[in-house]
Specification:
Largest sheet: 5 strands, mixed
Order of helices and strands: HHHHHHHEEEHEHEHEEH
Strand content: 15-25%
Structural class: alpha/beta
Helix content: 40-55%
Strand order of the largest sheet: 5-4-3-6-7
Number of strands: 7
């Protein structure tokens, strides 16, 4: 009798240990793990903020390293969750967490493994379209062309349009820095002085700059806002306005500003540039010592 009880108990333990987690339980476990990473980062951030022995430059540098490390950990957790649960809705939660920061090719691999049912989700379909565009326009690939009804003038309140293409500027034998921006976007405006400094320093036979305005209508603005904002901020280089969404859809751009450096033959050299790395990337491409 005792032997039978032991066997029954072992069988029960086996059943319990093999019990499948529900979607809700998997999601809770994933979010708990993600919160632990965030709490770890916040604790280190508070400790760094309280450290009076370091200079401001050292603090900024350490924060940059910490942000890179936490992003890498969070992406790794999210991607592993997606790959482990290709049929479960927890993957949709994880996908939203890593979509904007994960490596496109790693994310593509994870999304490819999702079940057909999950691939019918509207967000997943949007991600798949964007990933395909990002992979097609990754660094090392040739540029993808687009054409915009650019407003060249406004006469008696009516716009005068001209068809302008990216290929009118890119792939013409010069290094081209292309800034996708919008007049309502504060980070875009903050980046303009950096672009202006680079333009004034390097533009000529070997280098030029192009600004492409997109998503103007998303904040109730239009080409006139772009024209006016460009004047206020001293944008004196090449411009394409009235871009709408086609340029960003083709390049898988989810947020602006998004700055891409193209080679003389139209090869995408760097994308997602900003701040100090912007000037460094241009100087490196031109073979100039900063």
């Amino acid at each position: 009798m005792k032997k039978l009880f032991i066997i029954a108990a072992c069988a029960l333990m086996a059943v319990v240990s093999c019990k499948q987690q529900t979607n809700a339980e998997k999601t809770e476990a994933y979010q708990t793990s993600m919160k632990a990473l965030i709490d770890e980062y916040q604790a280190k951030a508070e400790e760094l903020n309280a450290d009076t022995t370091k200079s401001q430059e050292e603090v900024y540098a350490m924060f940059a390293e910490m942000e890179e490390a936490i992003t890498e950990k969070m992406n790794a957790l999210a991607l592993a969750t997606i790959k482990k649960n290709p049929k479960d809705s927890v993957s949709l939660v994880a996908l939203r967490d890593c979509y904007y920061t994960a490596d496109p090719e790693e994310l593509q691999s994870a999304v490819d493994a999702l079940s057909d049912d999950l691939k019918q989700d509207r967000f997943v379909q949007r991600v798949m379209e964007s990933l395909a565009a990002k992979v097609a326009t990754k660094e090392g690939n040739k540029f993808v062309d687009f054409t915009v009804s650019h407003v060249v003038a406004v006469e008696k309140g009516e716009p005068k349009f001209e068809q302008v293409s990216l290929s009118d500027y890119v792939g013409k034998g010069k290094f081209m820095l292309v800034d996708f921006w919008s007049p309502w976007c504060p980070p875009c405006k903050r980046e303009i002085p950096n672009i202006k400094s680079i333009y004034e320093k390097y533009h000529g036979d070997n280098f030029d700059v192009l600004s492409v305005s997109v998503w103007e209508e998303s904040r109730g603005m239009n080409y006139q806002n772009t024209i006016d904002t460009a004047v206020v901020y001293g944008v004196s280089w090449n411009q394409i306005n009235n871009g709408h969404s086609e340029p960003t859809n083709l390049y898988g751009i989810d947020g602006i500003p998004h700055i891409i450096l193209f080679g003389p033959d139209g090869t995408i050299l760097k994308r997602g540039l900003a701040g100090e790395e912007l000037a460094a990337a241009v100087a490196e491409a031109l073979g100039v010592n900063e």
